[in-house]
Amino acid sequence: MKKMSKDYEVGDKAVDGLIDELVKVSCGGQQCEDLMREILTTAVKLGKESSDRGDLKLANNTLKELRYSFKIFSPYRGVRKVIIFGSARSDRSSAEYRMAEEFARKLTAKGNMIVTGGGPGVMEAGNKGSKAGKEFALNIRLPFEQEPNPYIDEKDKIINFKYFFTRKLIFVKETDATALFPGGFGTLDEGFEMITLIQTGKSKPRPVVLMEPEGSTYWTAWLRFVDDELVKNGFVNKEDMGLFHIARSVDEAIRYIEDFYRVYHSVRYVSGLTILRLNRKISINTLRRINEEFKDILTQGEIAVSAPTEKEVQTKECLGLPRLSMNFDLHNFARLCDMIKVINQD
User: Which residues lie closer than 8 Å to 189 by C-beta, 6 or more apart?
Assistant: First the structure.
């Protein structure tokens, strides 16, 4: 059992003792006792320190939304999931609606799951195209009441959120790829945030596809703006343009997502090391190539084949997978994504 920190406590021996007793009856596993103690301590501190009911309501609703979301997604953590973002205003005859429906149908036929915002338009198309039981809907409660669309087969996979920020967190945390269809402010917000999270390392590397339906210039025009105004003015690096891909067909988008996970499996940051878990071993030539091409993103040493770290062994994380370890600078995440693409070419 991990030793619980006594640095973070209420400071009242009686209350801290009650928290210790609560930890014993509420924690699902010994490895989490330290975290459960901090959660309970935080709740008590909030009650003692805040007289603002609005503050407490915000904290309470946030925790409740996260708890319920974890409960719903937990049984499906081993299944790859793709977010579909796009306009709620797209009608059923639009090119983006038809493309989203086909995209969801083909992805779920391959065993993937779809996650949408649960509303009309492109979101509805995603749920409509999904194989029964293979989709989730993260609906947002708005003043004008956005009702969940009628194409969600299992109602227990609908989660209604009060806050956009908790909804966005679950979108990112519980999925493995992002598909953005043409849309309004919300779609652009979600797209820019997704790219920013990858760029800054706040999200693990993932494929982001910008879905350009036949006859559309939506993402082409967006790309021109990003290139002319962001890259040329130095607001983003040229390498950051590799964090996303414009796909002009459903099959191209699916191929891009599948290629991203062809060899690469996942990443883990452990005690200063960056560990890349792989679906299979890579060749000596590929290992030599990534050491030559990506030495600029290392603080020291080389990229090397490695065994699971002690922490990974303790938590039994993907122990059967081969690994690479390196002293990544934790800064050039676009270059890290480029390296993953090279590994996937092996």
Answer: none
Same domain, yes or no, for 238 and 293? Answer: no
Structure tokens at 210: 């910008």
In a domain, 7, yes or no: no
> Which CATH number characterizes residue 167's domain?
3.40.50.450
Q: Give the whole-angstrom CA distance, residue 192 versus residue 166.
A: 17
Q: Is the pTM above the cut of 0.90? A: yes
**Is the separation of the CB atoms in 219 and 181 below 8 Å?**
no
165 domain-assigned = yes
Number of helices followed by number of strands (H, E) in the chain: 12, 11
Number of domains in the chain: 3
DSSP H helices in 157-199:
164-173, 185-199
pLDDT in tens, 38-90: 999 999 999 999 889 999 999 999 999 999 999 999 999 999 999 999 999 99
Q: Is residue 1 part of a domain?
A: no
Distances (CA, A) of 64 to 50, 140, 160: 19, 15, 11
β-pairing, 264-270 vs 208-211, is: unpaired
Q: pLDDT per residue over 111-133, tens digit each?
A: 999 999 999 999 999 999 999 99
Q: Which domain holds residue 157?
A: 76-260
